[in-house]
Amino acid sequence: MTIKPIVLLPDPVLRKKSEDFEQVDESVRKLADDMLETMYDAPGIGLAGIQIGVPRNIVVVDCSGDDEEKAPMVFFNPKILASSDERSVYEEGCLSIPDYYAEVERPASVTVDYVDYYGARQTIEADGILATCLQHEIDHLNGVLFIDYLSKLKRDMVIRKFTKLAKSRGQPAM
């Protein structure tokens, strides 16, 4: 497995819409394995393909706690079929926006249709942190970042901060 570099804000690739996979084969499973390794190394609980510069509909998550056995999950072509009216608020962070956290309100539970690691179509009903994580990562596949749920003032401050950091590293701005 290979640890991939994570794309950071303000890189415009993070705003790209990702595309579905036609099939799940060995090369696609290798991508999933590399993404899991990258997520664990970061460390994080979720990672979308676009965050490593791959504009394809793949999400990996593992919401297990530090004292629990790893529980990696791979979602190809995930789509939210339904979300609850009930809302929940979690403090979210993002591997593409390091060391920045903010409370975000989202539906408390979701039903997600996806293709699993072996190519089988599945549906999962998720609540709690898994529901939040799946919504956050599926947003990435549509070019949406968790800071988009913040006020314009807060969002603009974050973007300015990360644009300044990128310039100091010699990276191009948005």
Automatic annotation (TrEMBL):
Coiled-coil ranges per UniProt: none
Cofactor stoichiometry and binding remark: Binds 1 Fe(2+) ion.
Alphabetically ordered keywords of this record: Hydrolase, Iron, Metal-binding, Protein biosynthesis
Record-annotated active site: 137
Leading EC class: hydrolase
InterPro entries named in the record: Peptide_deformylase, Peptide_deformylase_sf
Pfam families reported in the protein's UniProt record: Pep_deformylase
Cofactor(s) named in the record: Fe(2+)
Annotated catalysed reactions: N-terminal N-formyl-L-methionyl-[peptide] + H2O = N-terminal L-methionyl-[peptide] + formate
GO molecular function: metal ion binding; peptide deformylase activity
Residues involved in Fe cation binding: 94, 136, 140
EC number(s) from the headed UniProt entry: 3.5.1.88
GO BP of this protein: translation
Its biological purpose: Removes the formyl group from the N-terminal Met of newly synthesized proteins. Requires at least a dipeptide for an efficient rate of reaction. N-terminal L-methionine is a prerequisite for activity but the enzyme has broad specificity at other positions.
Family per record: Belongs to the polypeptide deformylase family.
NCBIfam families registered for this protein in UniProt: pept_deformyl, PRK00150.1-3
Protein name, as recorded: Peptide deformylase
Organism: Flavimaribacter sediminis
